[in-house]
Amino acid sequence: YIVYDFAGLGLYFPKHIFNPEWHPTRDTINDAVWEISWQDWMSDYTGPIPEEVGDWSPGDPIPTGLADAKALINAGPYYFVTYNADAKTAVVKKNPNYWVQSPVIAGIDAAGRIDPETDYPFDVIIENVGAKDNVTGELTPVSIDRIEIYVDGEYATEIVVGASIDPFDYSAYSVPGWVLNLPCGTYNVTVLVYETGVDEPLASTYKIVYVTIREDLNYDIKVRIDDVRMAAKAFGSAPPPFPGNERWDERADVNDDYKVRIDDIRQIASKFGWP
């Protein structure tokens, strides 16, 4: 029973319809099911049986007509959580033995909301989370060549690095403010990190940045009654730890005095109808 195909690897029933909650005595990600026998593996199976396999039930012989499952053991990138035959839908989770974390991760240290048409420098953080030498397996520094910056898929600039980052260390690299000097809107800022001498990116990340005025509390690039309502909901609040209030919303504190009062609502109302 083929449930999907990923890079040419089909996932088949029952080996790859696995979930630890359905198999209480099995390590269902690691067990070589077809080698320990179908009947043994399925003896405590409590999960759903897709109607496509007919009247099969746990303990029955292996269904006929399946492809060679030997090549598929531990090959699947996902495992099933739920399956709905009527709706023809499924929910899957990652198989942690299939996916391997990149030895380098990247992050964008930038504000989520910035003013329109204003320079905002920001940083790209690159961390070596445990790169290992391909031959010796020893921890090793990673040589970073450059960082490419894209805004909504369009190339913006690149930062030449030309330096190594030691294992479990990180470095921050500044991106000039003009990159985010943008008109009002919502933008996807993407970062690609390249290792020295390698054509494909070693790491990537992205951040959604809202370019809008401060009084646009819900970041929909306009000031309407919803923004006034958000401020009213936070009215009278202050941030933790003291006095603090569960209604505190820093977006409603538009004058940065660490409390939401009538001055904030008045300032939002003054921009009502923008743009």
Oligomer: single chain
Radius of gyration: 27 Å
Specify the number of helices.
4
Helix content: under 10%
Instruction: Please give the CATH class of the largest domain.
Output: Mainly Beta
Instruction: Provide the spatial order of strands within the biggest beta sheet.
Output: 6-12-11-8-9
Q: Main β-sheet, in a few words?
A: 5 strands, mixed
Low-confidence region ranges: 1-18, 28-38, 66-75
Beta-strand percent range = 25-35%
How would you classify the helix and strand content by structural class?
mainly beta
CATH-wise, what's the superfamily of the largest domain?
Answer: Immunoglobulins
Brief summary of the model shown:
By secondary structure, this protein is mostly beta strands.
Identify the notable features of this structure and list them briefly.
single chain, 275 residues, mainly beta, Immunoglobulin-like, 3 domains, five-stranded mixed beta sheet, three-stranded antiparallel beta sheet, 4 helices, 32% strand
